[in-house]
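Collaboration report, partner site 2.

Our partner group contributed sequences for two proteins of shared interest, and the home lab folded both. The records are reproduced in the order in which they were received, starting with the first partner submission.
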Amino acid sequence: MKLPWVLIAAILGSSMSFIDGTAVNVSLPVLQHELHAETGQTQWVIEGYALFLSSLILLGGSLGDLYGRRRIFTIGVVLFAAASIACALAGSIDALIAARCVQGIGGALLTPGSLALISASYSGEQRGRAIGLWSGFSALTSAGGPIIGGWLTQEFSWRYVFVINVPLAILVLVVLQFGVPESRDDSADRRIDVVGATLATAGLGLLVYGLIAMNAGRITLVALGTTLAGIAVLCAFVLFERRTPDPMVRCDLFASRDFSAANIYTFFLYAAIGGSLYFVPFVLINVHHYTPTEAGAALLPFVFIMVAASRWSGGLVARIGARKPLILGAILAGFGFLAFALPGNDGSYWTTFFPAATILGCGGALFVAPLTTTVMNSVPVEHSGVASGINNAVARTAGLIGVAVLGVVVTTSASYAGGFRSAMIASALLAFAACVVAVKGFARFEPGPVSGA
């Protein structure tokens, strides 16, 4: 029976992307010192990967449906592994950034492909169980990423954070070759939205480049012009997607009030989470003198609470609806960010960062599962896959922009500690803005599924 091998390949393949998504952040302070990188260059180590992943992830899913899910997933794994080797061997910060961009392209091919393989190979109750196992292992690898990254960086080198992808990739390729059948969507249209993908990548790239160029208060005409050009290209992307017969992003889904509100809510909260947590390892290592391993473990309460409470919070939607958990989750997240802004240079972890990570984790536990449920229930069933993909892309794009925007906040302050506090306050404001969206944007429905669009 080939089905278990499909699940193994999907879990191991996606784990490379999930581990890198959390492990690399912890190694940034060390690699910045070793490669003599500026703050903006260090940001691009994360942003280069996130840029191509967020802008091409919908295209990656479409390519799998058209040309074969196993084939595109295999190409993504090979590309991700090759780029990981290039990251590990990088002799300069520019080489590392370039390799991370290629890694993002690989991630955009393998991330949607992992779930697509599962959906194509399982049905009914088996599919639900398989996706549940995939989600559980994804959460575990995301949680273990910072500890693995911190330990490898401290005991060996930051380069080993990328090396660990290679044996995983080899194992995945073997399983794909001998245990996973090919599948595709025979009804898929033969046209791929290349123009839309190009506009999205160019627009986000210009916007992020302009924002990072404003670091340390350097608001030059070039930086401002690049930022405005990025916004203009993104507007052109929206106009093109509304008119093309085969869009990468189905704009008609936004006619649903709940779907629109859910994605605005997602953008605010994930910009706050992705942007602020990028800077946590820096302040822990450079200001509070944590070791990389300790810095990697500092956010574990945040992850573990979300994982442990996800099943419970998912059931809240059926009992009380999604609106109340989303409101309370955003409020708790806002207070969690404010708690991160409080610690001074003294005090143990248990009285400084542990309470902040715990409060933020409780907030995440309340909004993550209900938000996903709202997205899936806010559109007709036949469009649920597209809706999920759009929401995933919005979350990743939010993190991409959040790092760039909060980077300006951090670098314009007199000290890094002061900039970190300002960034956390800004993140809290974004969380409270998400709360307003939940109060005003979501329909006041009774407990039960959200009505379709």
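Second partner submission, folded after the first:
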Amino acid sequence: MSVRVEASPAMGPQAFSATFELQGGPSQGQLHFYTPLGSTAAAIAWTPQQAQMQSGMDTQYFNNITELIERVLGTPVPVAALFAWLAGDHLSLDGWQVDQSQFDSGKITARRVSPLPGAEIRVVLEP
């Protein structure tokens, strides 16, 4: 997975790329990001009541997964839509352009064109 967010008034440009493992759904789940050597870079867990992110010895708590993503990346990402896109559903969402033309090869690209800042999510799924 790679995520790129253009610069905003509040933050400079943000970008990261990592291998990931995702379990659950929009309301409750876990997401682990791994370093190239296979160790855990960050672990995120969320429920309807709260979300938390652990990186090394640091744990941060948030009201929900939407707030966590917005604080970390500097822009909101539509969690429910992301899960739909990962399942192969072409869910339309205002301001987002989703390319699932290579879904059969495990590739998804979603770009937010409005509101600014622009953002891009690229996912390569492995069986």
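Feedback sent to the partner group on the second submission included the following. The mean pLDDT is 90. The chain has one domain: 2-124.
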